[in-house]
Amino acid sequence: MGEMNVMKEKIIYSRIPSPVWHWLDVNEAVTAKPLPKAGKAAVSQDKRIRPQTAMSAEDAALAAKVKMATTRQADEAIEKYSQQRFFLDVPSGKKEIEPIYLNFDFLSEGGFYDDIFIKSGEGSQAEVVLLYTGRGGCHGGRLRVHIGKNASLHLCLVQFLADDMVNTDSIGVRAEAGDHFV
Length: 182
Fold this sequence. Notes:
Blueprint: E1 11-15, E2 28-31, E3 41-45, E4 49-51, H1 57-64, H2 72-81, E5 84-90, E6 100-106, E7 111-120, E8 125-134, E9 138-147, E10 152-161, E11 166-175, E12 180-181
Parallel strand pairs: 5-7, 6-8, 7-9, 8-10, 9-11, 10-12
Antiparallel strand pairs: 1-2, 3-6, 4-5
């Protein structure tokens, strides 16, 4: 993992596909600022959350099928700069009773970038809570979710970030028939 001193080009994070938003000038989220040097974050996670290196080739292919609203350029930046990559697999038929937590506390100025893939198997049920707290710097994250047939996934994203902290989250969901995503 190298330092993220400067990216020379602007990054277009997302393009909203609806022309309705064009008159409000919100079809794109763009930054021309260079990405800051890597910052530090304390990460605590439920034991059910593993590094993405634990994913099988089949799971990696499934994650790649999740369509994101971000541009290819923003996805490439996440691929290049992510300091943490997490994978949660809720097995088919498994009904998680307790919520599953992943907490980030941004400890320093600078940038922190993460990549999360959640796979909820057929007929499974789970509640996932992602908690972000921070005092400065910036955060960029990509969250990809695959929900199997007749599965139920409740996702809660909580952000307690400093007023001047820059935060860009990209969330993509791929769902099969009969799923329930909140």
